[in-house]
């Protein structure tokens, strides 16, 4: 027990935030902490106050009750704190619950607390738990830092070192390693880790991980069967519903996907991202009644959540209009602009939706004005505009009958994302919905083929040693499709190979950096990007 | 279904509130024992504390059983370090043990890990420790080991042991009829149900009652695959 003295000191010097809506509880937690020896303790009575406190001061340990009365709950506080990085990677977040609420949130959320504590607990237990958690955070801080810098290789290496010492939390470290490999796109390695765990024991998290890899590698049917199996074992495993819905939707089984999400929403109605997904899916399926219900929920839940977004409001407004309630939709949009204090994204979403709603209300002139405004805003956001936003623009143009504009938006999307199967399917669906073309499948695949051909030609040239020609060809391709990640990366790749063969050229080096930066802004976690980046680093090193 | 879920939500929030109250009671009483007032009767305060804790354990069991019956619960299996788990159980119950002059200890291989639903097994263990406290002479031991493909968690005492009828009848413990026989039986029934919810490959968890394992009294084993 000698080493406890050292650990006790650790806890004593930490800065604590206690969040509970009951004054008596706050007082009791404070006196427990005092008796453990903690000196610096602040308190907050609800989620809003907790966030304000976190904005103003760095806390080491947050003890937060899950139930905080009206407004944000403990999970909202955790999500916002971690999402907005209001707390450091070494900070410990403990969720205090009345009963085992873990099953309610199991795997359904991006951020999990370091630990759950079930009431009532004694100060001795609190102390022992906190000491362990603080040490664990310290132990994993380097790994977390590497992950947040997307240096997955280092993170995995550090975890492997820890795992080789067969520590107490071996299972936890293994799970973390597999998740990092998955994020890094190292699917074969991640899958080997999951398979190994599953060969000893059926663990739902490992099975889910395997399913996610099936999904990511296009084995959609196998993925769907796996997720269904998980739900048969445990019908409260909410993350499995989300993944099953995605797998079904990607197989153009939208109706079934909607049913799956509806079941999940019945089980846990408070998950904003799931309500949003359900609403959007129902809109695509033309089930406007269900869409309105889910999106209303998502907007309401957004008041407390860091995940609130203009797109949710805009979609709710559109769907209200489809359900014959255009005026209500317009009110929602005005409200939204205030809510997001007139941000570019909120203005653009509002303008698009207003165009469509005025059109539905029969005021074509007003509709045209708003759509013009939307076009200007869209242009001003520039090339970094998201695919979702471009899809929304295309939809808006289409619903206003500006079919040429809609078509050029969709062409632009396919040209810039020709290898993103999920997005291509969405383009195809929308092209069909808006009846832009008699054969939406062909519309997409024709543009796609053109780019694949161009891309392959460049790659073959490079293979055949015609590097200068390849550089020119990809240079032209990039100019024509600045948003295409594959083309950007291939351009960078041939330039790097070219310089490796015939020496560094300053202009080309700068160009390579530009291309990589552009892809990084579009998709920081792009797997191919990391490989080309490594090539670039090697090139630089070879010069030095 | 709709109505059932609403009832469960009301039940859960009522229990939440009751547990908050109990926590206040338990901790206020703890403050009383730490800082005794002249004329206060420590035995009475202790009784109050014990009954509040027992009420709390009952509430947890009630809620868990309700959820099991309504299939609102599936065990959330996690990998846990058993030494940490046992240490926390001892810490949680140490105050009571001291007041009863019972020596409460734990022993197991520090590297041993197990796979189970922490919340559920913690509830069971607390309830067994509470029972053990009443039947023991002056010793209570928590231990764990891996035996024949099962993780076996034991709660042992040095009292008179389980009566022979109970040992003989334990295979019928699943039978609802024994519920009428009282609090201890309910605890065993609850433990059996929770153990059974833990499965791995084709094996299923179970509980076992024996006497004279390493202490001379009763020994309750929870065996998890």
Distance between the termini of chain A: 53 Å
Trace the largest sheet of chain B across and list its strands: 2-4-5-9-8
Low-confidence parts of chain B: 176-180
Total domain count of chain B: 2
Q: Let me know the average pLDDT of chain B.
A: 82
User: Span between N and C termini of chain B?
Assistant: 32 Å
Descriptive overview:
The complex is a heterodimer of chains A (544) and B (225). With 544 residues, chain A is mostly helical. Among the domains of chain A are: 4-140, Response regulator (Rossmann fold, 3-Layer(aba) Sandwich); 455-543, Serine Threonine Protein Phosphatase 5, Tetratricopeptide repeat (Alpha Horseshoe), CATH 1.25.40.10. Chain A is built from 27 helices and 5 strands. Chain A has helices at 4-12, 23-36, 47-56, 74-83, 102-105, 123-148, 152-164, 170-183, 187-200, 204-216, 220-233, 238-250, 254-267, 272-284, 288-302, 310-322, 326-339, 344-360, 364-381, 387-399, 403-416, 421-433, 440-463, 467-480, 485-502, 506-522, 527-543, and strands at 15-19, 40-44, 61-65, 92-97, 115-118. A 5-stranded parallel β-sheet of chain A has the order 2-1-3-4-5, sandwiched between helices. In chain A, α5 links the parallel β4 and β5 (115-118). In chain A, α20 (387-399) runs antiparallel to α21 (403-416). The radius of gyration of chain A is 26 Å and the shape is globular. Mean pLDDT of chain A is 89; it is low at 1-8. Chain B is an alpha+beta fold. Chain B has 2 domains: 2-69; 78-224, 2-Layer Sandwich (Heat Shock Protein 90). Chain B is built from 6 helices and 9 strands; from the N terminus they run ααβαββαββααββββ. In chain B, the strands form 3 sheets. Chain B has a 5-stranded mixed β-sheet. Chain B has a two-stranded antiparallel ribbon with strand order 1-3. In chain B, a hairpin with a 6-residue loop joins β8 (206-211) and β9 (218-224). In chain B, α1 (2-34) packs antiparallel against α2 (42-69), α3 (82-99) packs parallel to α4 and α4 (118-135) runs antiparallel to α6 (183-196). The longest helix of chain B is centred in the N-terminal third of the chain and has 33 residues, at 2-34. Mean pLDDT of chain B is 82; it is low at 176-180. Chain A binds chain B through residues 22, 24-25, 28, 31-32, 67, 98-100, 102-103, 106, 116, 118-122, 124-125, 128-129, 132, 166, 168-172, 201-204, 233-237, and chain B through 12, 15-16, 19-20, 22-24, 26-27, 30-31, 56, 60, 63, 71-74, 76-79, 81, 83-84, 87-88, 91-92, 94-95, 110-111, 113, 115, 117, 119-120, 122, 200-201.
């Amino acid at each position: 027990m000698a080493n406890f003295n050292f650990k006790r000191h650790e806890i004593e010097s930490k800065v604590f935030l206690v969040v509970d809506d009951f004054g008596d509880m706050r007082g009791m937690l404070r006196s427990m902490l005092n008796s453990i020896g903690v000196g610096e303790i602040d308190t907050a009575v609800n989620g809003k106050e907790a966030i304000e406190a976190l904005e103003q001061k760095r806390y080491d340990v947050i003890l937060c009750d899950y139930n905080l009365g009206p407004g944000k709950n403990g999970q909202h506080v955790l999500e916002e704190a971690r999402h907005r990085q209001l707390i450091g990677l070494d900070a410990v977040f403990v969720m205090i619950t009345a009963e085992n609420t873990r099953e309610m949130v199991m795997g359904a959320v991006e951020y999990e607390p370091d630990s759950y504590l079930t009431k009532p607990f004694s100060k001795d237990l609190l102390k022992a738990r906190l000491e362990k958690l603080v040490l664990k955070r310290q132990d994993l801080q380097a790994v977390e830092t590497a992950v947040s810098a997307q240096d997955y290789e280092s993170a995995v290496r550090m975890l492997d070192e820890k795992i080789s010492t067969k520590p107490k939390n071996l299972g936890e470290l293994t799970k973390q390693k597999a998740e990092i490999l998955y994020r890094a796109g190292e699917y074969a390695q991640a899958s080997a880790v999951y398979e190994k765990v599953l060969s000893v024991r059926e663990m739902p998290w490992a099975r889910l991980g395997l399913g996610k890899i099936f999904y990511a590698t296009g084995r959609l049917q196998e993925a769907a069967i796996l997720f269904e199996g998980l739900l048969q074992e445990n019908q409260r495993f909410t993350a499995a519903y989300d993944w099953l819905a995605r797998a079904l939707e990607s197989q153009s089984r939208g109706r079934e996907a909607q049913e799956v999400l509806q079941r999940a929403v019945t089980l846990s109605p408070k998950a904003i991202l799931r309500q949003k997904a359900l609403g959007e899916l129902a809109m695509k399926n033309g089930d406007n009644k269900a869409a309105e219900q889910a999106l209303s929920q998502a907007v309401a839940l957004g008041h407390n959540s860091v995940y609130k977004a203009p797109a949710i409001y805009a979609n709710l407004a559109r769907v209200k209009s489809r359900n014959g309630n255009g005026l209500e939709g317009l009110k929602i949009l005005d409200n939204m602009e205030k809510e997001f204090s007139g941000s570019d994204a909120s203005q653009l979403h509002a303008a698009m939706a207003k165009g469509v709603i005025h059109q539905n209300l029969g005021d074509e002139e007003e509709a045209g004005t708003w759509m013009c405004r939307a076009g200007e805003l869209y242009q001003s956001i520039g090339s970094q505009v998201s695919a979702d936003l471009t899809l929304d623009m295309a939809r808006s143009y289409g619903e206003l009958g500006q079919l040429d504009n809609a078509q050029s938006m969709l062409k632009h999307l396919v040209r810039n994302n020709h290898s993103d199967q999920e997005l291509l399917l969405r383009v195809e669906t929308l092209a069909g919905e808006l009846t832009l073309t008699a054969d939406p499948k062909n519309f997409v695949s024709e543009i796609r083929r053109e780019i694949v051909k161009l891309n392959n030609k460049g790659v073959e040239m490079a293979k055949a040693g015609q590097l200068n020609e390849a550089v020119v060809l990809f240079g032209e391709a990039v100019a024509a499709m600045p948003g295409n990640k594959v083309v950007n990366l291939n351009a960078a790749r041939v330039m790097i190979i070219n310089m490796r063969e015939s020496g560094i050229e300053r202009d080309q080096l700068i160009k390579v950096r530009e291309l990589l930066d552009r892809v990084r802004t579009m998709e920081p976690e792009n797997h191919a990007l990391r490989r080309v980046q490594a090539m670039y680093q090697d090139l630089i090193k070879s010069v030095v | 279904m709709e109505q059932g879920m609403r009832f469960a939500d009301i039940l859960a929030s009522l229990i939440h509130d009751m547990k908050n109250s109990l926590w206040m009671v338990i901790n206020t009483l703890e403050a009383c024992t730490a800082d005794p007032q002249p004329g206060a009767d420590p035995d009475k305060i202790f009784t109050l504390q014990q009954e509040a804790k027992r009420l709390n354990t009952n509430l947890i069991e009630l809620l868990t059983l309700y959820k099991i019956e309504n299939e609102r619960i599936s065990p959330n299996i996690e990998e846990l370090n058993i030494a940490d788990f046992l240490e926390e159980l001892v810490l949680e119950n140490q105050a009571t043990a001291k007041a009863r002059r019972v020596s409460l200890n734990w022993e197991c291989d520090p590297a041993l890990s197990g796979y189970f639903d922490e919340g559920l097994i913690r509830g069971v263990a607390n309830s067994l420790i509470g029972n053990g406290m009443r039947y023991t002479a002056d010793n209570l031991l928590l231990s764990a080991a891996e035996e024949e493909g099962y993780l076996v968690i034991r709660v042992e005492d040095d009292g008179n042991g389980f009566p022979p009828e109970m040992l003989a009848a334990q295979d019928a413990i699943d039978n609802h009829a024994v519920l009428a026989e009282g609090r201890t039986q309910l605890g065993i029934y609850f433990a059996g149900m929770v153990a059974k919810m833990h499965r791995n490959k084709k094996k299923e968890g179970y509980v076992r009652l024996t006497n004279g394992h390493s202490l001379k009294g009763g020994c309750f084993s929870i065996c998890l695959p």
